Input
Amino acid sequence: MSTPLRVFVTGGDGQLGRDVQAVLAGAMPDGGAPAHVTGLTVPQPAGGFETLATDVDTLDLRDRDGVLAAVEAFRPDVVLHGGAYTAVDACESDPDTAYAVNALGTRYVAEAARRVGAHVVYVSTDYVFDGELGRPYVEWDDPAPRSVYGRSKLGGEREVLAVLGGDATVVRTAWVSGAHGANMVKTALRLAGTDGTTTLRFVDDQRGTPTFTADLAPVLVRLGVERRPGTFHVTNSGETTWFEFVRAVLEAAGDDPGRVEPITTAELDPPRPAPRPANSRLDNLGLRLAGLPLLPEWTDSLARLVDAVVGP
Output
């Protein structure tokens, strides 16, 4: 009888973690693209996958002893580390928690993985860049985060690579939405559904590459199973602004995109505590050069997600 490949998941209850678990269970995540659309295949171990998913209620990443004990008890082959303190604005007023979870917590995960010989895939963010570059960022551009959240996530990148070297993969992604949890797609649908006439105002001077968890999750699993080292940018294809994105959400839901008006970041009321990168575009150069399939166009995946959220 073949031995299953053991996968330890952090952040398992989040929107990405839920879809990662679906992929490992052999299911199609809600809003997911058919395999012929993405071209993505997840290597299937002869014994299948055995998964242990954790989240903040079952594993405090700040607790070194707890992290070491949990990983050593399960003895995974792969750790998919998506657990993080992602409240971007709250990080500004609570940097200790941000660094304790995102940086030091990642050190503990990496240390535990090293003890059992596991490969770690660490999920990072576009916020490690300052957003001032005039083109999409590639994996070899120098990070320069402007927010506490971005600096703490960059700390996590450095920790996992320092501890594990070639036994670690860093995956930077951006503007994430999925069928589970809170995200901009659900926020836009909720605001649009208040009375059917409310004008929605979203910034048009922040540009990025949206990512959908149903497309991202299979890539994380594949990179982990194949133990590919280094840094990859993984987002859906195409770029947009938040204003254009929300217009597309309403249009996909059969609503009037004309209800959405553009504003500048300076016009946000109240202003956001954490600075947002004006340019969050991530070029998936690493995937392309490695010959790995790229994710679908964001508009196609958005339509599938809206169908999954709104229903027939």
Notes: The first helix runs from residue 15 to 24.
